[in-house]
Amino acid sequence: MKKVGVAILGLGVVGGGTYKILTEHRDFYKKNHGVDITVESVLELNKQRAVNLGVQENKICSNIAEICSNPDIDIVVEVIGGLEPAKSFVLAALNSGKSVVTSNKELYCKYSHELEKAAKKNKVGLFYEATCVGGVPVIRALLDNLQGNKITSIMGIINGTTNYILSKMSDKGASYEEVLKEAQLLGYAEANPTNDVEGYDSTYKLSILSSLSFHTKVPYTEIYREGITKINIADIKYAKQFGYALKLLALGKDGENGIEVRVHPALIKSTHPLAGVNDSYNAVYIAGDSVENVMLYGRGAGALPTGSAIVGDIIYCATHPNHSYSTFKNTENADPSTKFVKNFESEYYIRLSAKDKAGVLSKITSLLGKHSISVSQVVQDKGETEGQAPLIMITHETKEHNIEKAVADINATGIAEVNSVLRVVS
Ligand code: HSE
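Above: inputs. Below: predicted complex with L-homoserine.
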């Protein structure tokens, strides 16, 4: 039987989950996949953590050179996260002839061109299913199962922390700050949540997914990014009244004018399948010209779900003789022929605090009209301050830059202040 040795770099949450899956399923993989996969080594500075997981002491090492020179290791799993030392370790493994499986979205997003070059040069595999949406098998779906399609759009809830926070704000009517605190206590959000709540994590994932979907490099720097830190509970309440859920969405479109990529909070119709994706669950909704719509749903993080994606890559690598690489020219920057749409079109939700007197609404709608913005729905609520009223509007489709100019004009009148502008996904 074919024997395959694995080394795991980092025995944190995901590394520990991967170790557990591999060791507990060894006989199952032998029987069903005809391959004997063993963990030959772990790189973990906290020796006790490795011992607690059941790793034999002679398999715990503290430097990458030992792993690179070990002939019993075929596949190196990188689950350290961050850029360094992860990048140096991955390059060292590839350059010593080992295939690499990584869950590191930031590393893969920013340096896949360099890593892939090293993998090709050394004729080894580079696998990254676990970089995007944890246990949800979206990378392989794009690489192997949907490749007969021209993918026209990809839309997803691809960050569990922010989805948990927005879901709880919606369920409990609690503020962002309150829910974040609770999420940190429960271990759903990190002590420094910036990477998740400001949308960076989603842009790394969207860069990878849209490059694969649209067959051209989509650097994360081309992605419009806005996080959830300014979301007010009032917006969730009004969104519900209009029949929408508020989600942090990652959107990629390949249209006539070019590629449009953005990560931002958005109102999505409560009947859309993504609107029902709650708590820390993730989902990706893909439109292809033949398949129509496909939605992949599941756990976007966690020891065993992410471990499942890693082990899937290990078995794939162990059972496929030839390695395949990107379906696009994998360079650092976008190909000069790729056009990116920045002034994108959307419907918008606008919440204003306006003076409650005759002529104010008509003044606001005439300023919107001046910038070719047409209103499709409008509601005036009772204000908490005497003489002031919240006005909530949904517009027809218009361009982002029109909205920016209209908001500046409205704020300059002194009769109304725009409190919130959110995009609406139709
Ligand atoms: N921090 C990520 C999330 C999980 O909250 O979804 C790992 O990608």
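The chain has a mean pLDDT of 97.
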